[in-house]
Structures are given as C-alpha cells and as structure tokens.
Amino acid sequence: MNQLADALDCAGYTPDDVTKLRQANLSGILQVLQGTAKIVRECFKLACGKAFSPAEFLGKGWAVWKGPVDGNGLEGDEDRDAREDELSVIDWEKVLLEPHLQEGENSIRGEEKLKRALASGNIQLGGRAFLSLWDDYQANRENSMLEKLRRKGVTRIYFFGLRLRDPSGGRFVLFLYFYGSEWYWYFNWLRDHWDAHNPSASLAILPLKVF
Question: What is each CA distance from 92 to 27, 34, 96, 143, in whole angstroms?
C-alpha cells in the first residue's frame, strides 16, 4: 500500500483524485490490470444535420450577419462558413480548439481572432455544430458529447463559423461553457478582447491524396 501511495503521489494524484479512485469500480480496475476486462473505446462522433435559426433560438431581431464587417450587417452574403453545411457528422476528437494568440500576446480583439481563424483555411464550426452539442446535452446530460469533452479538460467552445447580428446591430458569435455543475450557452461580442480561455472550434482540411 505504501508503494501504491508513493506511485500515486509521483504521478501527480491529488487527495481528491485518490478519493474518487476509492469510490470507483475497483474490481473493474483489477480486471484491467489482469487483462480480463473488455475495453470499450468512447465514441466522439456526433450528428450535425440540423440548421441553426438565430431568430428561433435567440429571439426576434437576431440574424446571421450579412455583408462586410464595416457594413450594417443587413445586406450582402451571409457571413458564415458554409462548408459546415456539408458535415453530417463531426468527430470531436479531430476538432481543433485554438485561441489564435501569437507569442507574447495575452489577448486579442475578436475580429482579429476571426481573421486568423479564417486565414488557417480550416472549416470554422458554427451554428450546426453548436446546436448539435446543445441538443445532445439536453437529451443525454452526463452521457452527452459536452460531458465527454469536459472529462478531457474542455470547458469552453466558441463557434466562429457563424457571425451573428443582434437587434442593435452588434456582431456576435455563440459559445458553450461549463459553470458550477452544468453547461450553458451564450454569445460574445466580437469587439471584446479574447484570451487563451476562449478557444474557437474548427476542422482541418485534409490534403487530397495523389495516386
């Protein structure tokens, strides 16, 4: 037992971690050590087929931003990453969560963060990804994708693939965050400062194979 205590301490286990370990299924852990347990790999794939409606989800007056950043948001093409529409399923193990900070920076403006995200060429996840995670959380709670991600250390996800216009004409993006014992959704102003705790989600484009 002393050897085990020393090993746990060297591995960085805290007293709280040890308490959780005592409350775990120890017989199951023993089966793993003996090689008799059946290991089931957790799945991080989630369907992403439902379109996001700003007015329906956020309320009257909300819409997808249209046109250039310095416009009124009411005229022109929708300011979003339409490539997300082609995703029927998202593998969240492959999703990149990036703050887009450069060396020596503690924070940047949201619009600058957006420019850097777009410059990567990655698919910026937006309303569909946001809605799939939120609906899944409402239906499955502790077994939801958000809880699976939280167990891997994720507590905030921003969705720069969809730029929104609020009723007053401001530019916003959606985000999900964990607080207390639950996940919540909200939106953040793109003129705000963003730091390392505000990662945006994207999927890298794989290069085509040449045969």
Answer: 31, 31, 8, 15
Question: What pTM value is reported for the model?
Answer: 0.81
φ and ψ at residue 15, rounded to 5 degrees:
-55, -35
Q: Residue 79 half-sphere exposure, CB side, CA atoms within 13 Å?
A: 26
Tell me which residue of 180, 95, 179, 77 sits closest to 132, measured CA to CA: 95
Residue (of 151, 152, 161) closest to 130 by Cα position = 161
Q: Please name which of 34, 18, 6, 51 lies closest in space to residue 161, comparing C-alpha atoms.
A: 51
Contact 160, 110 (CB under 8 A): no
Q: Per-residue DSSP letters for 72-131?
A: -SBSSSB-B-GGGGG-SEEETTS-EEE--PPTT-SEEEHHHHHHHHHHT-PEEP-HHHHH
Computed from CA positions of residues 162, 116, 207, 94, in that sequence, does the dihedral angle turn out positive or negative?
negative
Tell me the longest C-alpha to C-alpha distance in the chain: 70
State yes or no: pLDDT of 164 exceeds 90.
Answer: yes
Report the alpha-carbon distance of residue 44 to residue 146 in Å, rounded. 10
Cβ partners under 8 Å of residue 98, min gap 6: 117, 120, 199, 200, 202
- For 97-116, write each residue's pLDDT tens digit: 999 999 999 999 999 999 99
